[in-house]
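Predict the holo structure. Ligand: NAP.
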Amino acid sequence: MDYSTSTALITGGASGIGFAMAQRLKALGATVVVCGRRREQLEWAAREAPGIHTLQCDVVIQDERERLCSVVATRFPALNVLINNAGIQHRPPPVLERQDWSLWQREIATNLEAPMHLSSLFAPHLCRAQHAAIINVSSGLAFSPISFMPGYCATKAALHSFTLSLRHQLRSTPVSVIEIIPPKTKTDLGGKGLHDDGVPLEEYADATFARLLAGEEEIGFGFSEINRRASREELEGIFARLNPR
Ligand SMILES: NC(=O)c1ccc[n+]([C@@H]2O[C@H](COP(=O)([O-])OP(=O)(O)OC[C@H]3O[C@@H](n4cnc5c(N)ncnc54)[C@H](OP(=O)(O)O)[C@@H]3O)[C@@H](O)[C@H]2O)c1
C-alpha cells in the first residue's frame, strides 16, 4: 500500500491522534480529508496543516454518516483509505448510582456503531480501488479494561472483535483492515488534562506511522503493545494491576 498517493478520510481528524496522522499523511503527499463536529476545530486544523480538506459531520447521526459517504465519494472519488478514529471517553459514576444513559449511548454510537456503519458504507467504494485500507483506532483497554470506564473499554473490545471479522470478510479484496491500538497518549480525550500523563503525541504518532507504512496490521505501542500480545494469564495480571481492590 503506497500511502503517498492515497486519498484518506480520517474521522475525528482535526485533533489529537487523528490530526497527527493527517499531518503525516499530508507530508507524504496524500490527499487528506478530516471530519469532526466542531467547526472552529476544523478551521484550526486547516490552518495548521494547509491543504487538508475538512468536512463537518457528527458520526453519531446515521443520516450524517450516509451523507458523509456520498459527499466524499463525489468530491474525492479516489478515496482509498478510511480511518475510523473519532472517539469519546465517558467516565460515569459507579453502576449502582443513577446514570445519564444518553452519555453511554453517545459513547457506544461514536466508538462502535459509527466505525461499524462507516466501514460497511465505504467498503464497496474501497473495493473498487487497486489498493485500499480501513484503519480502526481501538485502544490498549480493548484487551484489559479499567473498571471505572466500563462502557469505553467495552466499545473498544467490540471494535477489536469487529476489526477481526471485517479483515476476514475482506481478505480476498484489495482492502487491508488495520487496527491501531493506542496506549494512554497525551491528547484531550475525555476532557482537558485527563491524558496529560500519557505518551507524548508526536512520539506516539511517529512510531505508529512508521509501522503503518511498513505494512503491519495490528499496531500497538508500549502498554498497548504488551496488552495486545498478552496471554490470558498475563491479561489477568494486567487487569489486577489496573484495577486494585
Ligand atoms: N489519547 C489516548 O490516550 C487514547 C488511548 C487509546 C485510544 N484512543 C483513541 O484514539 C482516538 C482519537 O482520540 P484522541 O486521543 O486523539 O482524542 P481527541 O483529540 O479528543 O480526538 C477525538 C476526535 O474525535 C472527534 N469526534 C468525537 N465525537 C465525534 C462525532 N460524534 N462525530 C465526529 N467526530 C467526533 C473529535 O472532534 P469533535 O469534538 O470536533 O467532533 C476529536 O477530533 C479515539 O478513538 C480514542 O478512543 C486514545
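Strands lie at 7-11, 31-36, 53-56, 81-84, 132-137, 175-180, 218-219. Residues 101-127 form the longest helix (27 residues).
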